[in-house]
Write a structure and sequence with these properties.
heterodimer; A: mainly alpha; four-stranded antiparallel beta sheet; two-stranded antiparallel ribbon; B: mainly alpha
């Protein structure tokens, strides 16, 4: 609370006499009246809210009793007794509601993470095309944005579900993606490593080390450039070494390529069409908004910045990386985070196409089976509030870090 | 864009007209030329195919799917079902009431474009404020000798309009109260308003709709029951109010402190000050944001599908499973897309025009266009 007690007491809604009140220990009759009025007003509002709460709680208790519904959180340890079409952790009919909740949450997070990554990449590409020096590219990007963002997200989703994926060939005539993956109207088939042996752990460690080396090399190079020094010799070596280590590690894994057997593909990873259409719709829809955010960010950087950098003799590539992008990011990040929150919430649309996300399995099936409406709604609300709060906190932390320090 | 040349300073290097500038970027380098040629080729082939499908080979009149040319669009499906897509299952004898409700918003918008006449603003604001209540009474009937029509029979574009405009209008006063609460100096009020706003903003609309259909009946005294449409609209209204409140708060913060101090000095009470001095300035400042909220609300009305209401998108989806018209998802969704696209794009153009107008007004302002900080 930024406002002190005295401040609050004197200015009711407005800050008319607050400054004087801070300086005066003795309150005049008007100030005393104002302070009393403020307390009375707040008490009245609190009383109203409390009365509403009592009314609602009483009705809920009566209604629940009338319907013979049990309450309490113990159902989380009860057997759920249903299957999920897709889950990252194993779910069978003996799994508890708690485990079903966890599986649904992980599914939601997976959809959101994939869509956020893809929408960011696509959105940045389209956004940069929006400010491209080439007019035709600009027109195409503008057309894309205007078409995509003026259609409801649900329409995007149903279009992907009912038109795009249905018009794909059947499993027998699936489109081969370079011989490794296959795309058919039953979903997307991708190769997957055979899990569960010591080899996989070793490979994972090598991959981690390789990524660390790449990041280290990249960071040292960027730092050196930012300081105007020549980049260290070992930087490129680190990056190349990391890349080679990753490539070797991934190649040595025992990849299982899906093979057509009977009516379906066997082996590898099968992504159900609902999942594909959900991620595709979320990606396309949000990419248009990301593109507009990126365009606004790039255009917010004054022309003088580029001209000054040119005058200092920076090469165009470095101007983009060291002058334009850092300043644009300051403008881009807050609305971008807002868009991410939107996307996370919109992933609940999975319910419509039947993908088992949190809302579908928990707020839908579990609620229907157990009838614990209040408990389930409270848990779901807490999850989504925690997710959006996390994004908001991360954004404000970033905002503090990149805040413009003015002399 | 980056290269807007000042008029009158045409140098031989800078082509002045738009066409020349376009040509200059096209032939600037080989890569650009290749990209442009590729795009032109793509646009040509794609455009030809679309025109072939949608117009040349399309069938407009047929009694079922079999009567349609399989190479083109089967618009006969849309034409046959148009009354249903517009009004849902509203009884045919009472359609004139639905017509009035459907026609009123475009008429009001036309009035907004019309030249100024005395009292125009009052008619506009009053029209839109009365619209939800009036359309509710007119559609449900039961009074003034109108036959009662249960809300389960409303559907199609009619339902989309009623839900969209209704939720928007109802959420407006709630949003203003919430915004005032959130900027209040009283900690208790501020806390309640902030918690309320953040709760509704943090939840997915799908979950809110589920909640309002499942939870709201539990909250009400036993025996009190509302139709699904009312329950869903309550949820959408509160959701939209939370978003609109944040827009309004932005507007409140843009009004300088001197305004409220001056109003206090003149002896204005709190509500008079808000109504005559603060709010008109605050809301005008964020008018584009308000229109943008309306656009996203209009798109979000499609979510009522999850609670079993037949809005335009859902009624078309339901019609797709008609055995006489199987396999026409593309036609159906293209139709829905065209309707929503023209509504949303039209509104976004209105918002963009407002933004330009306010910028121009600021340039003309006596302080030389500086914003009050």
């Amino acid at each position: 609370m930024a406002v002190s007690d005295q401040n609050m007491a004197t200015g009711i809604w407005s800050g008319a006499e607050s400054d004087e009140a801070d300086a005066q220990p003795h309150l005049g009759p008007r100030q005393r009246w104002a302070r009393r009025k403020a307390i009375l007003q707040q008490a009245a509002v609190l009383l109203l809210v409390a009365a509403l709460a009592v009314f609602v709680i009483r009705n809920t208790v009566v209604n629940l009793q009338a319907r013979g519904l049990a309450s309490g959180f113990d159902f989380l340890w009860q057997e759920a007794g249903f299957q999920m079409a897709f889950s990252l952790i194993s779910i069978d009919p003996t799994s508890t509601y708690g485990r079903v909740f966890l599986a649904g949450l992980l599914n939601s997070l997976l959809v959101a993470a994939l869509a956020i990554t893809a929408a960011t990449i696509l959105g940045f590409a389209v956004g940069l095309a929006r400010v491209s020096p080439s007019a035709p590219v600009r027109y195409v990007a503008r057309g894309y944005v205007e078409i995509v963002r003026n259609l409801p997200l649900l329409l995007h989703l149903l279009l992907w579900q009912a038109v795009v994926l249905r018009s794909l060939p059947t499993v027998r005539e699936a489109i081969g993606l370079g011989g490794f993956g296959f795309l058919s109207n039953r979903g997307l088939y991708l190769p997957a490593p055979v899990a569960g042996d010591a080899m996989a752990i070793a490979v994972a460690m090598v991959v981690t080390a390789g990524i660390a080396a790449i990041v280290a090399g990249w960071v040292t190079r960027g730092r050196a450039q930012a300081r105007g020094e020549s980049p260290p010799r070992f930087g490129p070596v680190l990056i190349a070494g990391g890349l080679i280590a990753n490539a070797v590690a991934i190649a040595t894994l025992d990849w299982q390529i899906p093979v057509l057997a009977g009516f379906d593909y066997r082996g590898g990873l099968k992504l159900m069409p609902e999942f594909v259409s959900l991620v595709a719709a979320l990606t396309i829809y949000n990419s248009a908004f990301v593109a507009e955010i990126v365009r606004a960010g790039v255009q917010s950087v004054g022309r003088g910045q580029r001209e000054a950098a040119l005058a200092l003799g920076l090469p165009p590539k470095l101007i983009l990386r060291l002058v334009i992008v850092p300043q644009a990011m300051r403008v881009i990040i807050p609305p971008l985070a807002n868009q991410y929150t939107h996307l996370i919430k919109a992933s609940a649309l999975a319910t419509v196409v039947g993908f088992p996300d949190l809302v579908n399995v928990f707020l839908g099936t579990s609620l229907n089976q157990t009838g614990r409406a209040v408990e389930i709604v409270v848990i779901t609300a807490c999850v989504y509030l925690a997710l959006s709060t996390t994004v908001a906190l991360a954004t404000s932390a970033y905002g503090r870090r990149v805040k413009l320090v003015e002399r | 864009m980056a290269h807007s040349s000042v008029s009158g300073t045409s140098s031989p290097l800078v082509p002045t007209t738009a066409v020349r500038r376009l040509l200059a970027t096209v032939v600037a380098n080989p890569f650009g030329t290749a990209v442009c040629l590729g795009l032109a080729y793509l646009a040509w082939t794609l455009g030809l195919r679309i025109v072939d499908w949608a117009f040349v080979n399309a069938t407009w009149v047929a009694s079922d799917r079999a009567g349609c040319n399989p190479d083109g669009a089967c618009w006969a499906f849309i034409v046959n079902r148009l009354p249903q897509f517009a009004f849902g299952f509203y009884p045919e004898a009472e359609r004139w009431r639905a017509w009035i409700v459907l026609i009123a918003p475009p008429l009001l918008l036309l009035l907004a474009m019309a030249p100024e006449f005395p009292g125009r603003r009052k008619v506009l604001v009053g029209g839109f404020c009365l619209y939800p209540v009036a359309s509710f009474i007119l559609l449900s009937g039961g009074v003034l000798g109108l036959a009662p029509v249960p809300s389960e029979k409303w559907g199609g574009l009619l339902l989309t309009m009623v839900v969209g405009i209704g939720a928007f209008v109802f959420s407006f006063p709630v949003a203003i109260l919430l915004a005032l609460g959130r900027t209040s100096k009283l900690p208790a009020i501020r806390l309640i308003a902030t918690g309320f706003i953040e709760f509704w903003r943090g939840m997915p609309l799908i979950a809110i709709l589920f909640m309002s259909v499942i939870m709201l009946p539990l909250f009400l005294p036993p025996g009190v029951e509302f139709p699904r449409l009312t329950l869903a609209m309550t949820g959408i209204t509160l959701y939209s109010a939370a978003y609109l409140a944040e827009v309004a708060r932005g507007g409140l913060q843009s009004v300088g402190r001197g305004q409220s101090e001056a109003a206090n000095a003149l002896g204005f009470g709190f509500w008079a000050m808000q109504g005559y001095i603060i709010m008109p300035q605050a809301l005008r400042a964020v008018l584009p944001g308000i229109v943008n909220s309306a656009i996203s609300l209009l798109k979000d009305t499609t979510y009522v599908m999850v609670v079993g209401l037949f809005d335009l998108l859902n009624i078309v989806t339901a019609a797709l499973s008609d055995p006489a018209w199987l396999g026409l998802a593309t036609e159906g969704y293209v139709f829905v897309g065209l309707v929503f696209w023209s509504l949303c794009f039209g509104l976004s153009q209105v918002s963009a025009r407002m933004e330009r107008d306010s910028e121009r007004a600021q340039l003309r302002a006596p302080n030389g266009g500086r914003k009050a900080s």
